[in-house]
Amino acid sequence: MPEPYKIKMVEPIRLIPPDERRRKLFDAHYNLFALRAEDVFIDLLTDSGTGAMSDCQWAGIMCGDEAYAGSRSYYNLESVCREIFGHRYMVPVHQGRGAENVLFSLLIKPGQMVVGNMHFDTTKAHIELKGGLPVNCVVRDAYNTSVSGLFKGNVDIDRLERLITENGPEKIAFILITVTCNSVGGQPVSMANIREVRRVAEKYNLRLFLDAARFAENAYFIKNREEGYGDKSITEIVREMFSLADGFTMSAKKDGLVNIGGLIGIKEDRELYNQVRAAMVPIEGFPTYGGLAGRDMEALARGLREVVDESYLRARIGQVEYLGGRLLSAGIPIQQPVGGHAVFVDAGKFLPHIPYDQFPGQALAIELYLEAGVRAVEIGSFLLGRDLVSGTQLKSPLELLRLTIPRRVYTNNHMDYVAEALANIRQRRDGIRGVRITEEPKVLRHFTAKLELV
Ligand code: PM9
Asked: What average pLDDT does the segment 434-439 reach?
């Protein structure tokens, strides 16, 4: 089936000539975050805040209530959240990392671990900034890109339980499951796995939270891959997923279908909710706007209703699968099966002559921009960074290049163009050089570091 929408507005894009692309990249110190977006032809840097809003959402922008306190748009958002997620309490925040900052400052004591499948980089940074220790416990198959698994984002339950018993539950601040699991390829987590984690959490009296940036895509995978869910609606599946958690953080810039926004949800713990409300004021803002304009909350309330439409999700994930299929048939190694929001090229396999500390994923990102004006992002050792104590470069278990597909933005012609560009690079891959860092900040370095070609 084609997309369940038609296009009412377009935005021109332009491919600048190859010699100009080379110069722009040099000026950007080989960090694609430093490029101007107008110098990018197809932008697959992220699916975060880059989606196209619907006519209904744009109409909502005009209806936003900009009251400082008690805005109508806040109450609209609250009632949609209750209906979809089933949690009693929610506060809006400016984006996902705002949610992490507020909630983690209340829940993490210095030295405590936060255990999950695999924390996203801003999540990891916020855990560390609060003196905590992020620990990843994803199933082993997630690290093998050529092993096909239905739920490669699942938590390794045995490892999780061992971690708790070996360290003692008091050493664990809480458990956090990222759905879908971005850092291993947008891979889903099954309902059975979330339920098992819940069981473990209850056994040791620990709280379980979801990092729910891509909750609807995860629900779509459950519907299509997990026994017993084929006849359930996406909303029913979402409700069940969230019923197993004590709360959630959410970057609404993904499945919220908005350009800015985020949420903290709390199932029923009124005391924690009151603490969150108090902590919100000096950081994000008064709890009924939380760093958002009334119009942003209105657009988000409408986006959350649209994202649980199964025909939308079929087209969305279908497009990601389409690109994955094109790459596989061109002999390009990718994380299999493809995830919900992106195709992850296995740059370690694609460029085996480049060692991890010369960042094969970044080398491939550079080459893709030079070849075709396409911007993608490295998810590997460059993103992972250094050991906090020794300062040595960490080795990521996977060296990936993420081709992240914005929602409702590009057509399959754009996907074909990207696949052909990577097929062309494959012909000359032996001559591609790695990169080294010349300047870097201590935290989240990949956004602003400067690099040079080896
Ligand atoms: N994810 C992404 O591109 C945007 C930042 S990096 C270019 O994948 C999860 C699972 C995320 C995420 C952001 C955040 C933070 C939390 N959890 O960007 O602060 O994928 O809204 O969300 C990005 P915010």
From this structure: 97
